[in-house]
Amino acid sequence: MLNRIALLASLSFLVCCHQQPANLTSHPARAGSNLKSDFMKDPHSFGRPDEAVVNHLDLNITVDFDKKMLSGTATCDIEMKENATHIILDTKGLDIKRVMLEDDKPAVFQLGDEVKFLGRPLTINCTSSTRKLTIYYSTSADAAALQWLTPEQTAGKKFPFLFTQSQAILARTWVPCQDSPGIRFTYSAKVQVPQGLMAVMSAENPTKASENGMYHFNMPQPIPAYLLALAVGDFVFHPFDKRTGVYAEPVTINKAIYEFADLPKMVDAAEKLYGPYAWGQYDLIVLPPSFPFGGMENPRLTFATPTILAGDRSLTSLVAHELAHSWSGNLVTNATWNDFWMNEGFTVYFENRIMEALYGKDFDDMQKILGQEDLRETVADLGDTSIDTHLKLQLDGRDPDDGMTDVAYEKGNNLLLLIEKTIGREKLDTFLKSYFERHKFHSITTEQFLSEYKSELIKDDSADAKKIDIEKWIYGPGIPSNMVKIESSKFNHVDKEVTAFKNGTAPSKLETKSFTAFEWIRFLRSLSDSLSLKQMKELDEAFHFTKSGNSEILFVWFQHVIPSQYKVAYPSLESFLENVGRRKFVKPLYQQLAKTPEGKEMAKKIYDKARPNYHPITQGSIDELLK
Q: Which residues are catalytic?
């Protein structure tokens, strides 16, 4: 118990902390030290790394499926600045039982008031000589980073499953930490799970289940907290070569082996572009369908949605994207979530380059055009003057998930495409390779990149600088008029067939035999928003869209099914929404259903069944929509 003076001092400090959120560097840490001399504020963390910072985390936790709880200890190796008297960690919903210092003495600690989105700061009193502390804690049953699945919610239907999703600021819901992308630490872990289940993390991983359910992990490279990850369930491992492989439930593994067979080639192609892969092993794990994202780039172990198991390797660009994050994002990280485009825009550009190297320019051009279409739709939804269409975001006081739109991904990518077109691919590649090497295992701000862009890429070439007008892209709204126009002969053919259909040609008479998934997506996106039931029936009979095994094609098809009230496809739509938790798909479909009273009633009935299968991130989006 804090005495009155200590309590008042602590509360006074926490009030200041709430008014002036955490600090972090925009420059690499000095050699031999993780403390920062030059730093900026991170509005989404209570931590103050300029005063005290975590360098290493050692977890010792037990996974309890009955209680839906993780419990145990988090031991932090810390570095304290001279005269520092405390360290502040981020928590949200954690039950902090006690804190012990390295001399086995209890530490005085205080949990501050709850702050929207951020949780509660954990302030631990220590001295400048403190080097280690251990926090005894447990998670809450509704921890937002943890999804607990019953056996019925998995592919195999026999064993429960747990997976985490720490991005953007959810690591604090399962580990007390400094939850900022600008603070990096190494980690180790001991994880006890029920016998018969396997555990893997974003670390050096086992390839077989242990007999006693105890697993040991080590991550020797420093990572930010949002890349902490854990999955527990009934899955097996298949290696592709000495450094790549895939984990999946036994009933899914054969599909995954086929779908990801090109994984070694992807890693080789990435290395040829931008230098050595720095993380040792690169594996995938296919999660149950409730996973809310396409993929999550957890180092050494990408978490992937089963919706990319199309059976024809047509959706593996998602894997290339998550692999590219091993350089842009994981290796060189956005300093705060306001700089999110620095992670995602660079990664989309890198992803496209990998896919071009493996599958050719035609494939890549189609992917770029679809990305530009996604960007235009997102900007139209947000409004072309919205601050959320800037690359440099303004998320202070908001949930950083608000910034995770196609603006960061596709507007960022198209800025790099414009730079490439203006200065030449070779020059940009030389810069990017050096950029990844120069900043590896550190964070970077938009402003730091902009400075290097001017000094290393543009230099004194005012003509190129004027052509690009980079400040307009970064700090301005909407889509600049100088976005690169991409041409695709394959899409030109698709557009010709769409025109023929609109002019009355029967679907069965269209020239579509050579269409790939991207071409079908383009075809469906280009159709009228008000197709008649007769047209829907003819399209479905000719191309069997309702029975497609490709989730991307199904998603676009359902966007026609709903407004046309093509009831033949309703059972497929309901099944899709009940079994797929990927927010990219389910949120737009519920939004479209909710546009009419009849559709909203249908949406609520489907959601009542589907909600338990969704991740809390997805639940939050749909709860608000259907309330």
A: 322, 409
